[in-house]
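Section 5: illustrative case.
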């Protein structure tokens, strides 16, 4: 299943031992206002954030981008979901989200099944995140210094990111993208990352 995004790409499971990463020169060039094309949609970057993730005693910083589709869905582009700079994911809010509360989400654990858009995925890991910086006007990114709990799920080709605090939950589902596709999509060369 490809959700609402075109061109699903098979992806490998996350690296079990993420390393600490910082934004590369390429990621630093993805700034609010930049336009590009990913998965057959034209996007403008509305906001960018650096997010510190803690999972099982390990910490790294991932980059998150709030994208406005023109036309198309608002989307979340992630770099370093599991701590790898070559790892990119394009996610959108699901049309049929899973139904559970933030309190119920707190009790989910790796291996649990989560279904959205009639796609079955399994929780691969749980984590906590803190938004370090936000540039631009965002709807999908956390506020600066906001601490969220979350989990990541993975199906055959589909990924889901679920994060929450006690009053609100954000859910995004999508696919992994090759780094070269993201670089080409925003007019950057692969030699810069």
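Designed sequence:
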């Amino acid at each position: 299943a490809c959700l609402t995004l075109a061109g699903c790409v098979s992806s490998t499971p996350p690296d079990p031992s993420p390393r600490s990463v910082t934004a590369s020169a390429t990621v630093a060039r993805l700034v609010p206002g930049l336009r590009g094309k990913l998965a057959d949609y034209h996007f403008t970057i509305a906001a960018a954030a650096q997010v510190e993730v803690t999972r099982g005693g390990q910490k790294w910083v991932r980059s998150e981008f709030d994208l406005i589709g023109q036309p198309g869905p608002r989307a979340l582009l992630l770099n370093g979901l599991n701590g790898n700079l070559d790892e990119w994911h394009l996610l959108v809010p699901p049309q049929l989200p899973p139904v559970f509360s933030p309190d119920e989400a707190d009790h989910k654990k790796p291996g649990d099944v989560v279904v959205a858009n009639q796609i079955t995925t399994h929780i691969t890991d749980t984590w906590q995140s803190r938004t370090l910086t936000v540039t631009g006007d965002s709807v999908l990114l956390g506020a600066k210094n906001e601490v969220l709990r979350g989990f990541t799920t993975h199906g055959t080709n589909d990924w889901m990111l679920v994060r929450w605090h006690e009053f609100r939950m954000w859910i995004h589902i999508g696919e992994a993208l090759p780094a070269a596709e993201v670089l080409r999509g925003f007019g950057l060369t692969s030699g810069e990352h």
